[in-house]
Amino acid sequence: MRYWAHSCFLVFFATSATTSAALVVTAGDHRFWPDETRTIAIQVTGGDLIEGLDLYVQIGDGGEYNGGTDTTPVIVGVDIVGPGTIFEPSNDGQMDDLVALGCWAGTFTLMASPLVPAEGVLGFLSLDATGTQPGETYPLLLTGVMAGVFGEPGIDTSLINLDPDFPTPTIHNGSILIVPIIPGDANRDEYVDELDAKILAANWGQSGGRAEGDFNGDGVVNALDAAILAANWGHVATTEQSGHLAAVPEPGGVTLLSCGVIAGLLR
Hints:
By secondary structure, the protein is an alpha+beta fold. Helices cover 14% and strands 26% of the residues. The chain has 5 helices and 14 strands. The radius of gyration is 21 Å and the shape is globular. The termini are far apart.
């Protein structure tokens, strides 16, 4: 474990870990629209008991503070002890470092008593993609973070347990892909199809944003949005729009059914 910018004396009390499947921490690959701010989850699987977490995250090259040039996307929030996280029922609080326009974050929690199983959401990151362009891809790093500041190879996310036999987790870094805004595309896959129709139908009559099927931005999912989806049915992002060659999904077996759903919503 490494800490910085904190003056504190830490005492740990631990019990032996119960070993199950291999521990794996996954940042995930996430798609964002250029104007979007939303929250994504970092997952952990394996189930071993842990007493704390050192979470280190870097977006892109880490920005000027790390000797880089990226200024976006930025980290605007980190939550590793709130609702939905594995540490929600047992934690000793959260301490944060957010530096250099939020291009990197260091966050930790200590003294989970009782210990918690490492299975579920390790933490939530809120990211703001304002200022990005379609086609841009940014690494989402949990390892090798801020090497320009702390020296190579940087610092890594770690799960805390003082048992000498505690397994070292496998950590998978991820990415942030910026995709174009396409009318009717609710799931950011750059294609208007039955998946988007299902999202719209599931949120019919409710308030929401583009990701819930509100394509005209009036704050509610209704027939106007269904008309936009129908008008753009089958549209796929061009290379000029997306900055990369967008994959065209194979036609699904429920396409006709989904078209029927749209027709029903328009009645």
